[in-house]
Amino acid sequence: MMTTGSDLHVTPVAPSERKTVLQLIFQELESTRRDSLVQDYIGQATHGKLSLEGLLAVKHQDEIIGASWCHVLPGKTAALSAPQLKPGATKDAIDLLWAEMDRYSKTADVEIAQCLIPTDSAENADALRRTGFRRVSLLMHMTSSSENFPETTAESRLEYQSCALDQMQRMADLVQSTYQQSLDCPVLNGSRKMTAVLEGYRHTGVFDPGRWLFLRFKSQDVGCLLLTDHAQENQWELMYLGLIPEVRGHGWGLEATRYAQWLVSQTERDQLVLSVDAANYPAVNVYELAGFSACDRQWIFFKTYS
């Protein structure tokens, strides 16, 4: 399907155009990093490890003047990249690309589409709202380098237990319990089935069930810690840390964060990263106490599909 507006039109990207389009999508990255990322994505697509079917280009006649990506992920989620335009391109191209990504998401059997945009990107924010998206929170990206990692693990009343592959339902039930009264993007709670949420986590970075941990106290599950490895970036990611309401306020969030840092220190990676709702002040405070610092902030927009 083609979306038209004035003398512009949006089309799917042909294989021969992928490199050009990806270079445009990642044009704001440093050139070496951009070229490496584009090469990696094309290589993964060539070997069937990544789908680039959601790449979209807006053209004036036959010239590509803008591009975006509706990346359908495991867990019935679509991650939308903010449109990138060549200098001099009309702003109508932004609306056309958002409208086509919305249409693509509707037909891709996703439950939720989400997009992260810079806090100063008013044009994209307005276009997202016109397309039916809702701004839900300000996402804070934080990082901790190896100099902040503890040299040893502290004495603890908590027990850390790895999640076996046959314990995923137990983990799903526990994560659901930790969502109660959570301040981390609460409007998103219930927007997806928990099985889809965990499926998304499993396909983030390099999945290893040994890095998915049950936090236990007196033989009871009281929280969870989900970590993953991003080898290309030489870092681990703390994807999720949650405690059930009954045990909050005992300092266990900080303790689990420090334990995560210690785990990274036992590997060749030199950085631990995470993202947190900026309005979740207790969590932000915990991460700052553990030596994390904010490296970026972005608005998160989302839209659900039945």
The SSE order reads EEHHEEEEHEHEEHHEEEHEHE
Number of strands: 14
Give the amount of beta strand, in percent.
25-35%
Mean pLDDT value: 90
What is the CATH domain class of the largest domain? Alpha Beta
What is the fourth-level CATH superfamily of the largest domain? Gcn5-related N-acetyltransferase (GNAT)
Helix content: 25-40%
Major sheet summary line:
14 strands, mixed
Index terms:
32% strand; 306 residues; Aminopeptidase; 30% helix; 2 domains; 14 strands; 8 helices; alpha+beta; 14-stranded mixed sheet
What does this 3D model show about the protein?
The protein has 306 residues and is an alpha+beta fold. It has helices at residues 18-25, 31-46, 92-107, 122-130, 168-178, 194-202, 252-265, 281-289; strands spanning 3-5, 8-12, 55-60, 63-73, 77-80, 84-85, 112-118, 134-145, 159-162, 212-217, 220-230, 235-243, 271-277, 293-304. Strands 1, 2, 3, 4, 5, 6, 7, 8, 9, 10, 11, 12, 13 and 14 form a 14-stranded mixed sheet that branches. The longest helix is centred in the N-terminal third of the chain and has 16 residues, at 31-46.
Present the secondary structure layout.
Elements: E1 3-5, E2 8-12, H1 18-25, H2 31-46, E3 55-60, E4 63-73, E5 77-80, E6 84-85, H3 92-107, E7 112-118, H4 122-130, E8 134-145, E9 159-162, H5 168-178, H6 194-202, E10 212-217, E11 220-230, E12 235-243, H7 252-265, E13 271-277, H8 281-289, E14 293-304
Helix pairs in contact: 1-2
Short structural summary:
The protein is of the alpha+beta class and 306 residues long. It is 30% helix and 32% strand.
